[in-house]
Amino acid sequence: MEGKKTAIVTGASRGIGLAVARQLGLDGYQVVLFATRPASACEEQLKELDGAGITWHYVQGTLDSSQDRKRLVQEAVRRFGRIDVLVNNAGVAPLVRGDLLTMTEESYDRVMGINAKGTMFLTQLVANQMLKQEILGKKRGTIVNIGSCSAEVSSVNRGEYCISKSALTMMTTLFADRLAGDGILVHEVRPGVIKTDMTGKVQEKYDALIEAGAFPIRRWGTVQDVADAVSAFCSDLFLYTTGNYIDVDGGFHIKRL
C-alpha cells in the first residue's frame, strides 16, 4: 500500500515474534512474518491478524539459509514496496542442554548459524535495502534485535546460546554505529524469563525462582511485555537514541545484596 510503512519480523509464527508482529500491525505497519513453519500450520494465528485488520504477508524459510534470507527481502519489497523496520527475533536454543565441557561443535554451529550469522547477514541485506529508499517520516528505518538476559547471565548448560546472544549485543552496537548517519536507528530488547514455548520446558525451575524472589517484579514476563518495548523503539519516541538496549526482565538485571 502506498505511503504505509512495512515491518519484517523473524520467528513470527508464535511466541514473542507473533506478539511483536501483531503489535506492529496494530501500530499501522504492514507486516511480513518470517518463520520456519508453513503458513498452514498457523492458520489460527493468521486469522487473528486478519480479524484485527492487519495487512500481512507470510514467508516460510530458515534464517541460516542465504537463499531464504534473500527471498524474504525480495518478497517484502515486491509485496509492499519497501522495508522500514526489521525485528530480529528468530533464534534457537540448543536441542540438548549440555555442560560446557561436553558441548558439541554441531550444537554450537547450529545455534550460532541461526542466532548470530543468520541475523547478521539478514540485517546487512535489509540495511542495504533501507539505504535505497526515500525516507518516510522522521527516520529512514529501525532495526530491533531481540536479545536476551543470557547475553550477560551465565548458563553453563547452554553456553552456545549465551555466546550467540552476546554476539547480538555487539551486532547492535556495530550496526548502530554504521547506520546512524543514514537515519537508521538500531536497538536491542533483552527479555528475561518470558512465558513461551522455549521456557515451557523449564517452567518449574522458573516458577520456583519467581516464588523465591529472584525477580523484583514477581511474575513471568509476557510476550506482550516484549512487544510493547519493540513498539516504542519503532515509534518516533526515541529519535536521539541508538545502539542501546532495554531489559524486559522484571528487574532481574539488578544486582542485590
Can you describe what's shown?
By secondary structure, the protein is α/β, with parallel strands linked by helices. 43% of the residues lie in helices and 15% in strands. The protein has 8 helices and 7 strands. It has helices spanning 15-26, 43-51, 66-80, 105-132, 159-179, 197-200, 203-211, 223-234, and strands at residues 6-10, 30-35, 56-60, 85-88, 141-146, 184-191, 244-248. Strands 3-2-1-4-5-6-7 form a 7-stranded parallel beta sheet, with helices on both faces. α1 (15-26) links the parallel β1 and β2. α1 (15-26) packs across α8, α3 runs parallel beside α4 and α4 runs parallel beside α5 (159-179). The chain is globular and about 50 Å long. It starts with 5 loop residues before the first strand and ends in a 9-residue tail after the last strand. The mean pLDDT is 95.
Tell me the radius of gyration: 18 Å
Q: Strand arrangement, largest sheet?
A: 3-2-1-4-5-6-7
In whole angstroms, the N-to-C terminal distance is 54 Å
Arithmetic mean pLDDT: 95
The SSE string, one letter per element, is EHEHEHEHEHEHHHE
* Number of alpha- plus pi-helical segments: 8
Shape: globular
Strand content: 15-25%
Number of E-state strands: 7
Q: Helical residue percent? A: 40-55%
The secondary-structure class comes to: alpha/beta
Task: State the low-pLDDT regions, or none.
Answer: none
Summarize the biggest pleated sheet: 7 strands, parallel
